[in-house]
Amino acid sequence: MALGFLDRSRIVAPPGWTRWLVPPAALSVHLSIGQAYAWSVFKTPLEKTMHLNGTQSSLPFQLGIVMLGLSAAFGGTLVERNGPRWAMFVSMCCFASGFLISALGVATGQFWLVVLGYGGIGGVGLGIGYISPVSTLIKWFPDRPGMATGIAIMGFGGGALIASPWSSSMLGSAPTTSTIATAFLVHGLVYAAFMSMGWLLVRVPADGWQPDGWEPKTDHGTAMISTANVSAANAIKTPQFWCLWVVLCFNVTAGIGILEKASPMIQDFFKGTPTPVGVAAAAGFVALLSLCNMLGRFVWSSTSDLVGRKNIYRTYLGVGALLYLVIALTQNSSKLVFILCAMVILSFYGGGFATVPAYLKDLFGTYQVGAIHGRLLTAWSVAGVLGPLIVNRIADGEKAAGKSGPDLYTTSFYIMIGLLVVGFVANELVRPVKEKFHEPVPEAARSEA
């Protein structure tokens, strides 16, 4: 049971309260935890000051993504039960304290504290914070669920655009143990203050609330929108859940494979050509991909409200596979083609994250959609390891064999094509959930708003 002001009953919106205050509350949390995508800013300074290799300096980020998926999966039911204020408060405490523990680790020369703080405890904050507003947004915006979740999840994709230059300016040109520890300390305090705006502002709709003039729609054909509700326990028993798990996992794998290695990839791709890519230009490429990742979360998820969730995933997966094929076939003959294809692929990567909560709502209803979403995010944990592993392992192997340029990545691209095709097939297999999994109407009627 949540305590005092954190209790769900304390945040039921009064009549006349505007639902448009919920997206800013969600954004304050997602823009903060989106800092995770800017971890690379700390990698090199940590390697130099704490004498780490690249694999070691990646541990906090990798553990953070794993803990994101696990905490979202196991904490999803608690988030549904206790409400978004409780979840955002817990997220703030874990995420901010993760930075503070990391600051202590750097100051004392104990890297394991950085791994524990940022990756372990901070990773729990990532997972709880990521799912904290999703169910509430869907209930406030039943008429535009894709747009609503897209706004919030766009914040997670765009968090690095704020955090990266901010962190870099704090570290300076010659980072020391003191400046890194101070940066972690300041990050923890500032993010705690910023995330507090979210849990203080958020509200849930009263029982039976719906937008003026809006009537629920059902379309069991193309959009498969259901008015029935399915519990989280029953959802994982359905083939629909596991089809979407495959869809999300492989869509994320294909995107994160480029995102994680974007800077060295574009430099390797065009090395030895008349137009090589320098370090500064590669950094600009990374920023461009981050922008596409962020915008794709809003643009594509909003589009899904118009064309349907199944159709938009056909685009993510089918067109994504074709774009990878274009890159593999054109090699390094056109820098413009490479950049444009990568931009669209990363927009699909972001769009896939933002659209999946609405897809779940269409299939399983709003009853425990936050908990179901949490369980589905275990696909992200797997993809967060699988994508970088495929690209890095193959590139290292090809480099050891004496290859260079596009040859380092061609095999990886063909693997990504195969994964996207499998994801496309899984999406085609999604059908309306059978009635035996539906909640009895009286129980569904008692679901928390």
Automatic annotation (TrEMBL):
It holds the Pfam family MFS_1. The chain crosses the membrane at residues 20-39, 59-79, 86-105, 111-134, 146-167, 179-202, 241-259, 279-300, 312-330, 336-360, 372-391, 411-430. Residues 1-435 form the Major facilitator superfamily (MFS) profile domain. SUPFAM superfamilies: MFS general substrate transporter. It comes from the Bacteria. PROSITE patterns: MFS. It is a multi-pass membrane protein. InterPro entries: MFS, MFS_dom, MFS_trans_sf, Proton-linked_MCT. The keyword Membrane applies. Gene3D superfamilies: MFS general substrate transporter like domains. Its main location: membrane. GO terms for cellular component: plasma membrane. It is found in: Cell membrane. The keyword Hydrolase does not apply. GO terms for molecular function: transmembrane transporter activity. Keywords: Membrane, Transmembrane, Transmembrane helix. This is MFS transporter. It comes from Amycolatopsis rifamycinica.
